[in-house]
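Long-time lurker, first post. I've been practising inverse folding by hand and with some scripts of my own, and I keep getting stuck on stretches where the structure tokens seem ambiguous. Below is the full token string for one chain I'm working on. Before anyone asks, I'm not after the true native sequence, just a reasonable design that respects the backbone. If someone could post their per-position residues I'd love to compare against what I wrote down in my notebook.
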């Protein structure tokens, strides 16, 4: 490759004659003196109109700068013309171009169109400005002839130089191609790679020498003939790859086995198909002998596979850190240990430290700094915190590598996930500690003996129960310490089968026997025995509980059972007497009262007006007392029936019960013009007739104890309240209660009597003011208790009373 400059000397184009003009210099002087700027702008404008190619290199230049540059060039041109030095102008211009000294552009960027369009631009500009200089036709013609002569001379030289420059480029290119081909052949030999150009239509295929060498062929006209030596198992693969390239995307690539003689090679081939009018006509490509690489890769892949398997099985990953570049590389298994996809991200020291558990982060940084200072890295253990919140425990080993100046430049090492082992170790330690604590703090005595019956372990509870200290009994025979004298024979009878057959009859069973304290006192114990191993030797574990108190309590309980049975019998007899009393109250007591009322009425009727007034008054009092007595008997019977009646609960709509009660009290409600306002009531499991009686008793009281100056107003509401907010007097405590409230605007009562009004026969008003027996609210209280609920009352004299029944939800 050469850098020779083309021959640009003017003599070669003018026959040795220099350009000398008669008319053009004066015209150029005129333009220089009077029309320089206008002439320059005209040249620029015409250049743009004819689209001079060189102008594209000045597109980014500001207009002012481009105009200034144009004026400068035009002024230089006119100076040469005015001095009749056109040949000098040509010599200078050609030299500047040939020696690549043009401003802003390279000489090789000048094309034929630049020469022709620039010549046209100058001729047109000179012609356009001639009328400003002279209107004499001969002068006009002479000047333009000289302009044409200059233009022809310049174009001839420029075309010649351009041709020489292009020829020089072609020569250089051919030389470059020859060099590249030589280097390519050398590279193909080194890389064991050959190239081909396969003519798919005719017989004009070409192959590089290295291709013949790879395929061990002397000559061929058909590339497909090489298939004869392709491994039979790869025939289909190679044909498919070729057909896919020819019929499809044009890309051919295949790796296959090839053999000629005794040697088999692994060949990799790649090519591109060229199409004409939609039909394949040529394939260019390369083939490479990759046998050695194939075998090496297979060995590496196998080695890498075994290495990865070993890492995965042991949860062991490796790492290295180039300190100055902060470049950390991890093996795939190490990525997995840290909960990341293999090679999913670049690991930096900052990223690594972020994955270390906060509890160990500072410690790990200090360990690394110490390793860099001492050039030695100790084995380490640390916790890491994965992105998903998982905590792992890792154990690592490392090494510090130093350069020739003993400066650390790299850390390498391994890291193993020992989370499971650490957890198992910790669990084992905790289990041992837990076992020790259990034995120490066990509420029962725990004694461990060997197969010979000697004591190996004696916990504090055993010391408390039997009175022997651990030091006193360790190594001693069990039968000489806690087994009573009369039970030692049985003890050995139990152990004898173990020595002979390995079977213990009382093993894993709970038995009650007597034992002996250090003081000699015998007492009852509950005993169970388990078999285990200790240091590989069989042992028996005794679990013993002092049940002497339970035995005494059992006797006491038996005595209480007998007493309770007697009381039950007495209560049954009392119930029978109560039933008999109820019968008398409902039948025998009613009859005399009825007769008293009847005979009193007969005396009044028959005596008529003849009876003295005091006698009439006595009879009236007798009749009233008998009526009161009858009501009292009925109320007592109702109370007794509430206590003894069968309790059958049914899911009942309380709204229906309330409607029945209001209907039964309809006459009284209308008589007193009472208003009853009821909110919806719940559906509850109740004894229907009892709960109806409860509602009726409370509503009756509200109507009975109303004020005389205003009509009664009774409000009934229900709501759910938490049981924790109530001070329940009942033994049954529920999480929540239905609070059913009945309030009135009647005469009310003093709050100090809120509990008294629920007792039998308790009345706050005289019987002459308000009728009643004082049993109705006692019945309400009893009914609420039957339903595992309770009832409370509140009142204020003259303002009314409120009764709230709490039913468990």
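-- Answer (accepted) --
I ran through it position by position. Result:
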């Amino acid at each position: 490759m050469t850098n020779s400059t083309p021959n640009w000397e003017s003599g070669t184009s003018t026959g040795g004659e220099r350009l000398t003009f008669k008319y053009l210099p004066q015209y150029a002087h005129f333009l220089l003196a009077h029309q320089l700027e206008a002439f320059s702008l005209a040249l620029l404008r015409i250049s743009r109109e004819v689209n001079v190619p060189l102008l594209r290199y000045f597109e980014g230049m500001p207009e002012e700068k481009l105009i200034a540059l144009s004026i400068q060039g035009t002024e230089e041109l006119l100076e040469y013309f005015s001095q009749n030095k056109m040949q000098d102008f040509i010599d200078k211009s050609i030299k500047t171009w040939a020696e690549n000294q043009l401003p802003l552009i390279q000489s090789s960027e000048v094309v034929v169109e630049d020469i022709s369009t620039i010549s046209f631009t100058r001729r047109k500009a000179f012609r356009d400005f001639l009328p400003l200089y002279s209107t004499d036709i001969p002068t006009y013609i002479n000047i333009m002839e000289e302009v044409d002569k200059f233009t022809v001379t310049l174009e001839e030289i420029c075309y010649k130089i351009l041709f020489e420059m292009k020829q020089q480029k072609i020569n250089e290119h051919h030389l470059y191609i020859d060099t590249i081909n030589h280097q390519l052949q050398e590279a193909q030999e080194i890389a064991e790679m050959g190239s081909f150009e396969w003519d798919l239509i005719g017989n004009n295929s070409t192959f590089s020498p290295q291709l013949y060498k790879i395929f061990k062929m002397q000559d061929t006209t058909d590339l497909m003939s090489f298939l004869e030596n392709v491994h039979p198992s790869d025939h289909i693969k190679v044909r498919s790859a070729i057909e896919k390239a020819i019929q499809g995307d044009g890309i051919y690539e295949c790796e296959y086995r090839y053999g000629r003689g005794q040697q088999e090679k692994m060949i990799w081939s790649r090519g591109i198909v060229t199409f004409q009018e939609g039909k394949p006509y040529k394939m260019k490509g390369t083939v490479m002998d990759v046998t050695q690489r194939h075998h090496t890769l297979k060995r590496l892949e196998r080695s890498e596979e075994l290495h990865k398997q070993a890492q995965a099985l042991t949860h062991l990953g490796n790492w290295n850190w180039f300190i100055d570049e902060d470049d950390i590389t991890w093996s795939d298994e190490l990525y997995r240990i840290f909960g990341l996809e293999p090679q999913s991200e670049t690991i930096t020291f900052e990223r690594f430290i972020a994955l270390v558990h906060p509890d160990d982060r500072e410690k790990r940084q200090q360990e690394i700094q110490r390793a860099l200072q001492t050039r030695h890295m100790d084995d380490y253990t640390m916790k890491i915190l994965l992105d998903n919140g998982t905590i792992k425990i890792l154990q690592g080993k490392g090494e510090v590598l130093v350069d020739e100046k003993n400066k650390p430049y790299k850390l390498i090492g391994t890291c193993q996930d020992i989370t499971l082992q650490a957890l198992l170790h910790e669990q084992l330690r905790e289990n041992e500690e837990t076992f020790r604590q259990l034995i120490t703090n066990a509420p029962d005595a725990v004694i461990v003996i060997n197969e010979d019956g000697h004591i190996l372990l004696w916990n504090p509870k055993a010391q408390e129960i039997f009175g022997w200290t651990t030091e006193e009994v360790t190594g001693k025979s069990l039968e000489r310490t806690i087994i009573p004298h009369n039970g030692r024979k049985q003890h050995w009878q139990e152990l004898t089968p173990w020595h002979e057959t390995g079977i213990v009859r009382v093993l894993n069973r709970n038995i009650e026997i007597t034992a002996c304290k250090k003081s000699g006192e015998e007492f009852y114990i509950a005993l169970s025995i388990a078999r285990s191993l200790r240091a590989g030797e069989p042992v028996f574990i005794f679990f013993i509980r002092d049940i002497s108190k339970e035995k005494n309590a059992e006797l006491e309980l038996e005595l209480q059972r007998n007493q309770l049975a007697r009381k039950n019998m007495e209560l049954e007899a009392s119930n029978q007497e109560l039933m008999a009393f109820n019968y008398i109250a409902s039948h025998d007591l009613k009859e005399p009262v009825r007769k008293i009322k009847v005979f009193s009425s007969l005396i009044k009727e028959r005596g008529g007006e003849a009876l003295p007034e005091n006698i009439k008054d006595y009879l009236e009092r007798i009749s009233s007392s008998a009526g009161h007595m009858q009501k009292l008997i009925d109320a007592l019977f109702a109370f007794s029936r509430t206590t003894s009646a069968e309790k059958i609960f049914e899911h009942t709509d309380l709204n229906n019960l309330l409607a029945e009660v209001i209907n039964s009290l309809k006459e009284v409600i209308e008589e007193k013009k009472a208003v009853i306002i009821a909110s919806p009531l719940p559906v509850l499991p109740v004894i229907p007739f009892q709960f109806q009686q409860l509602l009726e008793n409370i509503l009756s009281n509200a109507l009975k104890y109303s004020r005389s100056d205003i009509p009664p107003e009774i409000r009934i509401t229900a709501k759910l309240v938490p049981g924790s907010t109530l001070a329940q007097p009942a033994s049954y405590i529920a999480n929540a209660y239905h609070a059913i409230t009945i309030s009135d605007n009647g005469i009310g009562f003093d709050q100090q009597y809120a509990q008294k009004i629920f007792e039998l026969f308790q009345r706050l008003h005289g019987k002459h003011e308000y009728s009643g027996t004082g049993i109705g609210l006692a019945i309400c209280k009893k009914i609420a208790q039957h339903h595992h609920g309770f009832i409370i009352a509140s009142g204020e004299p003259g303002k009314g009373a409120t009764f709230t029944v709490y039913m468990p939800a």
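A couple of notes from the structure itself: Residues 1-16, 766-770 have pLDDT under 50 and may be disordered. The longest strand covers residues 263-276. Happy to go over any region you disagree with.
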